[in-house]
C-alpha cells in the first residue's frame, strides 16, 4: 500500500468581509435623454385629464382603505371586549354550578332515608335545570349582543364607503 501525501500551498488572499459577499453589486442607472416631443393640445389635455382622474381615484381608494383599516380595528376591539364579557359570564356560571354541586354533596351526607334522598335529588335537579336554562338564555343574549355590536358598525361603514366610491 502506498500512501500519497499531498501538500497544500497556502496563498495569502485578502480576507473578504462576509457582508460584502452577499450584497448586490451597485450599478448606476444609465441616463437616457428622451427626445422632447410636442404633443398635440388635445392629446395633452386628454393625458392631463387621465392623470387627474387616476390621482382622484387613488385618493378615494386610499381613503377607503384607511377607513376599512379603522373599521377592522374597531370591530376587533369590540369583539375582544364582547368575548371577554362572555368568558366572564361563562366562568360565573361555572362557579355557581360548582357551588351548587358541592352544596348538594354536603346535603347528601345528612340524608337519613330514601324519601329524603329522592326529595333532595329532585329539588337539586329542578334547581339546576332552572339555573342552566337561565344561564343559557343569558349567554345567548350576550352572544347576540356581541355579534350585533361587532357587525352593525361594519355593515354601516361598508355601505357608506361604497356609497362614497360610486
Q: Could you explain the architecture of this structure?
A:
The protein has one domain. It starts with 17 loop residues before the first helix and ends with a helix. The chain has helices spanning 18-21, 41-109, 114-165. By secondary structure, it is mainly alpha-helical. The chain has three helices and no strands. The radius of gyration is 38 Å and the shape is elongated. α2 runs antiparallel to α3.
What is the fold's blueprint, element by element?
Elements: H1 18-21, H2 41-109, H3 114-165
Rg calculated over all Cα atoms:
38 Å
The main pleated sheet reads as: none
| Succession of helices and strands | HHH
Could you give the count of β-strands?
Answer: 0
Report how far the terminal alpha carbons are from each other. 89 Å
What low-confidence regions span 5 or more consecutive residues with pLDDT below 50? none
User: Into which percent range does the helicity of residues fall?
Assistant: over 70%
Percent of residues in β-strands: under 5%
Amino acid at each position: 500500500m502506498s500512501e500519497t501525501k499531498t501538500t497544500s500551498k497556502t496563498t495569502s488572499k485578502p480576507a473578504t468581509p462576509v457582508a460584502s459577499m452577499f450584497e448586490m453589486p451597485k450599478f448606476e442607472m444609465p441616463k437616457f435623454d428622451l427626445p422632447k416631443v410636442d404633443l398635440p393640445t388635445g392629446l395633452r389635455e386628454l393625458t392631463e385629464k387621465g392623470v387627474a382622474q387616476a390621482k382622484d381615484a387613488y385618493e378615494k381608494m386610499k381613503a377607503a382603505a384607511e377607513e376599512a383599516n379603522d373599521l377592522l380595528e374597531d370591530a376587533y376591539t369590540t369583539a375582544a371586549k364582547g368575548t371577554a364579557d362572555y368568558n366572564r359570564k361563562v366562568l360565573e356560571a361555572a362557579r355557581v354550578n360548582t357551588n351548587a354541586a358541592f352544596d348538594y354533596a354536603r346535603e347528601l351526607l345528612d340524608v337519613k332515608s330514601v324519601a329524603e334522598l329522592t326529595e333532595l335529588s329532585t329539588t337539586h335537579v329542578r334547581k339546576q335545570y332552572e339555573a342552566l336554562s337561565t344561564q343559557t338564555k343569558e349567554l345567548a343574549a350576550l352572544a347576540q349582543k356581541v355579534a350585533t355590536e361587532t357587525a352593525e358598525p361594519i355593515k354601516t361603514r361598508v355601505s357608506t364607503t361604497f356609497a362614497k366610491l360610486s
